[in-house]
Amino acid sequence: MRVRIMHGELAPGTALTLRGLGREFGVSMTPAREAIRRLAAEGALTLSSSGRVTTPDLSNDRIEELAALRGLLEPELASRALPRAHIALIDRLQVINQTIAEAISKQDPVAYLRTNLEFHRTLYLRAQAPAMLALTETVWLQLGPTMCALYGRLRRTEPPQNHRTIIAALRAGDEPGLRLAVRTDVTQGLKMLVG
Amino acid sequence: MRVRIMHGELAPGTALTLRGLGREFGVSMTPAREAIRRLAAEGALTLSSSGRVTTPDLSNDRIEELAALRGLLEPELASRALPRAHIALIDRLQVINQTIAEAISKQDPVAYLRTNLEFHRTLYLRAQAPAMLALTETVWLQLGPTMCALYGRLRRTEPPQNHRTIIAALRAGDEPGLRLAVRTDVTQGLKMLVG
DNA sequence: GCCGTGGTTTTGTGATCACATACCGTATGA
DNA sequence: TCATACGGTATGTGATCACAAAACCACGGC
User: Fold this and answer.
1) Do B66 and A41 touch (CB under 8 A)?
2) pLDDT tens profile A75-88
3) Which residues pair with B15 in a beta bridge?
4) Which of A188, B1, B46, B132 is 20 to 30 Å apart from B10, CA to CA?
């Protein structure tokens, strides 16, 4: 429920109401409120003064900060996943990569975003670091709406070259290369957004 | 309310009940539940199957992971705070440091922990990076109960030498030195816990 | 003496309600 | 014509209730 709400298909600045969400999902106010508050607790929603709730639209400083967070956390996760990455994982990553290419050619930003995150999560799951992954997903959640909105604006056409570099580094067991590839993949996309 | 609960004065493994907490704080189940769920969402509480809620007692792997997270996030925060650190801040840090020394001499683990975190937070507030600070506090929250319990077991007597190194690096404007000092301060304490 | 099974109690969940408050539209006056 | 004040509506908050499930305890059987 909350996952679908915040996965990116909600424009930043949208106002949410407890009763509205309750009606939409066929539940009462109590579970809706709980979901809202939980998302607000991890920064995915901003609850304005007097509890009014909206999806946040982030300032450029905030985007830069969250991008730095990704650039800090994700290389570490990738590095931890590297020793445990075997062929089956790499194959799955390549399949996901193909799906990403399809989403790009279809100009479907929400599918692109979702599959892109699936690529990263699939890799990071191997890191056996649940707390670190949870924190990273928190960051994704906060970036979700703005990223989706901005990807919708600028027409991406280039294929996911960075992902290919990541897979290559994974195959070669090249730890510094992997860190660098992940970092550039993460920061490059977000640098375009603020710039 | 939730801050006081998780600030460290709760042994890991304690079971919380909604109605119990409600009675303790003079409120009904609804706000108590909300607080519980919020804390559970950020990993400060583990809600077992069927919603039973306890304070988590962390495995050594988990402690190591959270320590790595601190070692990743906090040097970055300190580095960002460095250009904005002026004399008044350093003075305040030194005052807090004195309070820490008092807590150590009194063998009061919860006061030690609280003041120690106040030291770090005071520094990191200058970084102007709210999301990063929020994530770091999440990590603190998760570590809270175990750290308190373990600090109670081992009798610390050494004064906070690392904090003095941090302040010195801050004064000198030495960015790599600051990063290193923060990293060792953070990881050293936690290395003793698992070891 | 120990283990399984029954009932009782506790606990979490979701719904509904009453109340305070914030927001919005309108009307009136300068 | 614009600003301000007032009233109605909608919204969040906290409380209470009914229900289901899980835990606990005791009793009986092997």
Assistant:
1) no
2) 999 999 999 999 99
3) B54
4) B132
